[in-house]
Amino acid sequence: MQAGRRYNRFYLYSFRGLLMIRVLVVDDEKPARDELCWLLEKNRDIKVVAEAENGMKALEYLKDEEVDLILLDIQMPGLTGLETARQILSHPPYPQIIFVTAYDQFAIEAFDVNALDYLLKPIEEERLTRGLNRARNRLMKQDELVGLGQRIMNLVSSEKQAGPGDLRKLTVYSDGRFIPIDFDNIVMLTAEEKHSLIYTTKGSYSYRKSLSQLEELVTDDALFKCHRSYTVNLNYIEAVEPWFNNAYLIKLKYVDDRIPVSRSHTAALKEILHMD
User: Fold this and answer.
1) What pLDDT digit, counting tens, does each position of 14-38 carry?
2) How is domain 13-149 classified at the CATH fold level?
3) Which residues does the UniProt record annotate as the domain Response regulatory (predicted)?
4) What is the pLDDT of residues 137-183, one digit of tens each?
5) What angle do the packed helices 30-40 and 125-156 form, to 10 degrees?
6) Least buried of 51, 186, 216, 260, by fewest C-beta within 10 Å?
7) Where in the chain is the domain with CATH 3.40.50.2300?
């Protein structure tokens, strides 16, 4: 994930004192996109930042850019709007979504993926306004939550130069909450595509930075990089099991899977653990 997409702040930005809502319009029919953009731009606080003609292009855009609201057609070639929404919503925090379609049989399924609203074509301006008002209200509440979360992160985030006695915590966003994690409770860090996962004694959390970036934030003598994709907490090792080609697997508390030790890190692990 490129640095341009930020998840530790709210997406709204200010223009001459007015909070602007950044919108992505996704529809495979250009006339439908044009009409929707025309209706949206009647609102002074709405800015259409991009259009996409299918779900794949929308997901590509969202890899590097941030939006507050997506107006998403349901019936599209390739990925449907519902399939696209499920991918977008798989890693919170995520944009608000309003579905737009010519058919009403998808309404129940749309709300199953936490849609903000469901608009039928042709779009009625009054109905669109109600949907936008819902988005405004939810985004303002989210802004207050993130503001609180930022204050928490300022209090508990550990810096490299932190001295003895300073808090050693990292804050993650999960299920609409900011959760501080004690370094001592971190069992393992692992890569997940362009992101990373933090395994703790209380569960696992997705983190919107690469493993290498995460490892720079979480500095602890007990953490050992056993593989290019895994860093484990030595204090939570239950067993080290021989594997093929003189390699090893680590069994950790609170983690079901065995963790591989690369051959280049085997000697260091054996020395640290005083393995015969």
Assistant:
1) 443 446 889 999 999 999 999 999 9
2) Rossmann fold (3.40.50)
3) 22-136
4) 877 766 544 444 444 444 444 444 444 444 578 888 888 788 889 99
5) 70
6) 216
7) 13-149
Residues 107 and 116 sit within 8 Å (Cβ to Cβ): no
Rounded Cα gap, residues 150 and 173, in angstroms: 11
Bigger pLDDT: 208 vs 189: 189
Q: What per-residue confidence (pLDDT) applies to 66?
A: 85
Yes or no: say if 65 and 88 are a contact pair by the CB < 8 Å rule. Answer: no
Q: 220-261, pLDDT tens digit by residue?
A: 888 999 998 999 999 999 999 998 777 899 999 999 999 999
Reply yes or no on domain 169-272 having CATH 2.40.50.1020: yes
Name the residue type at position 266: T
Nearest to 215 by CA among 234, 196, 194: 196
Contacts of 59 (CB under 8 A, 6+ apart): 79, 84, 87, 88
> How many residues are listed for the chain in this entry?
276
DSSP per-residue codes, 12-78? -EEETTEEEEEEEEE-S-HHHHHHHHHHHTTSTTEEEEEEESSHHHHHHHHHH---SEEEEESS-SS
- Rounded-to-integer distance, Cα 204 and Cα 37, Å: 40
> Could you give the residue range(s) of every CATH 2.40.50.1020 domain in the chain?
169-272
Residue 186 has pLDDT above 60, yes or no: yes
Q: Cα separation of 69 and 26, whole Å?
A: 11
Fill in the DSSP letter of residue 135.
H
